Amino acid sequence: MRIIHIMRAYKHMERFIRFHILIMAGLILFSNNKTNANPADPSDNRPNIVLLLTDDLGYGDVGCYNPQSKAPTPYMDKLAREGRRFTDAHSPTSVCSPTRYAILTGRYAWRTRLKLGVLNPWDKALIEPDRLTLGDMLKNQGYTTAAFGKWHLGWSWATPNGISQEQEKNEDFVKRIDLTRPIKDGPTTRGFDYFFGMVGMTPDPCLIENDKPIMIGSGKAPTIPGVSSDLLAPWKIENTPSMLNEKVKWYLDQRAADPSKKPFFLYYALTTPHQPIMPSAQFRGKTGFGEACDFVHQTDDSIGQVLNSLEKNGMLKNTIVIVTSDNGSPGYAEANSPTASVMDRYDHLSSGPWRGMKGDTFEGGHRVPFIIRWPGRITPNTVSKENICLVDLMATFAAITGAKLPNEAAEDSYDISAAFQPQPPSKPIREATVHHALIGMFAIRQGPWKLIQGIGSGGFTMPQFIAIAPGDVGRNGNRGQFYNLENDPAESHNLYQSNPQMVEKLSQLLDQYQKSGRSTPLRP
């Protein structure tokens, strides 16, 4: 009898212990929003993800988008034949830093302190410390994460006397930065296991590995694993693309040799074909249509080197590869020559058929190439007209990897994976898309309709902005611009006055997005 009582007591104790283990496991799993995800089974065949973000590559620069392009782009064209290209893809803002923020957070950058323009290289971090990032999410799903190239999202720099960026107000701050100390609030605190790159694209770069400067200015750099010594001594700005390419290939070799075989997310933010337009000797003069076209050709070659490295390491079949751009092209023809247009000088339409350029609310400012290759999942040599935005990448990768996003993350990110299926979605994925220009001017797009809240481009195309006094009717009676892109892709016929109901509808929707803090429905 005593033995029976002991056995019963043991069973009660066992149930008690199991119950509390389950409770504790649940508390650990859901205690932190930044790690709120559903870890995937490490035994499954999760795809690697390679995101290649070019800098200032225009819609019309790429041959598969513009057969008359003067810049050869054989690798991007091949990628399109092996995958799918989107013809209605957009950067969330028509300039650099805010687009990068949106890609990595799934949130429009105009919701942050950055209401116009871009960060300067020494600004504090734009991504908030407690915000879930694309890197965080994929790490939680068992991915190894790495970022290369141009960060341009701010850091926290140290000064010898300990003064922070927030306290520093004068122009001499840059001179007093102590680059011998670790840099805080960079990529390795925003979801990446490894980082190699620079603050931004500057003539005298500060090369950074993880959180430590490894080269400052134009002097000789130390030995960098995977990078040829002749690219580092003496330093030349035109060597930047080759140096980054070599480092990315070195990383892929490391991943191939990794016995854990964990899937990886590689975010490579190329520095080309952004200014300074300085193609390397191998590409200078190669196209016959100026340095800008040479630089686009070199950008394509960089993409090809990554693709070839994936193939060499046997990774290409199980890797999602995306090539896109942070905004449209500025249309410059030569190095540091904003007055020379590549269109006027070489008849090269860097924006393709679209009006405007980088910085604008017009389509040329934010309609970008977007090519995706996913063997076995995406039908080769196909084209999608689905309206998508780069802010959608976070929700899309969450859906692909099985992550559950909390409502306080990726507030503007739609899952566009349905657009990767053989048949197009039965209805538009996005309710509407918000566009944002260099000077902070807003536009909103729904279906064929596009409302621009102002007169002018909002960017580099003149006139940039025409102020309208309260009570004034504006230019030709218009206080804004309203276009039907299906009938008028050139944005040449302003329908603002003739469609007051649609203007009001889109104005109210944009106002709702701005005030509510999100543009996507709440997640269950």
Descriptive report:
It is a single chain. With 524 residues, the chain is of the alpha/beta class. It folds into three domains: 2-31; 48-432, Alkaline Phosphatase, subunit A, CATH 3.40.720.10; 434-516, Arylsulfatase, C-terminal domain, CATH 3.30.1120. Helix content is 25%, strand content 14%. It is built from ten helices and 16 strands. The chain has helices spanning 2-30, 74-82, 96-105, 134-140, 240-257, 290-312, 342-346, 363-366, 393-401, 500-516, and strands at residues 48-54, 84-86, 89-90, 144-150, 194-198, 206-209, 212-216, 264-269, 319-325, 370-373, 382-384, 388-389, 433-436, 442-446, 449-452, 481-484. The strands form three sheets. It has a ten-stranded mixed beta sheet with strand order 7-6-5-4-8-1-9-10-2-11, sandwiched between helices. Helix 5 (240-257) packs parallel to helix 6. The longest helix has 29 residues, at 2-30. The termini are far apart. The model is unreliable at 1-33 and 35-43 (pLDDT under 50).
Number of strands: 16
In CATH, the topology of the largest domain is named: Alkaline Phosphatase, subunit A
Major sheet size, sense and barrel closure: 10 strands, mixed
What series of H and E elements makes up the topology? HEHEEHHEEEEHEHEHHEEEHEEEEH
**What is the CATH class name of the largest domain?**
Alpha Beta
Fraction in helix:
25-40%
pLDDT below 50 for ≥5 consecutive residues: which ranges?
1-33, 35-43
What characteristic shape results from the CA principal axes? Answer: globular
Category by helix and strand content: alpha/beta
What is the beta-strand fraction? 5-15%
Q: Average pLDDT value? A: 89
Using the 3D structure, state the CATH architecture of the largest domain. 3-Layer(aba) Sandwich
Rg for CA atoms: 25 Å
The CATH homology group name of the largest domain: Alkaline Phosphatase, subunit A
**Ends distance:** 53 Å
Can you tell me the number of structural domains? 3
Number of helices: 10
Instruction: Please list the strands of the largest sheet in the order they lie side by side.
Output: 7-6-5-4-8-1-9-10-2-11
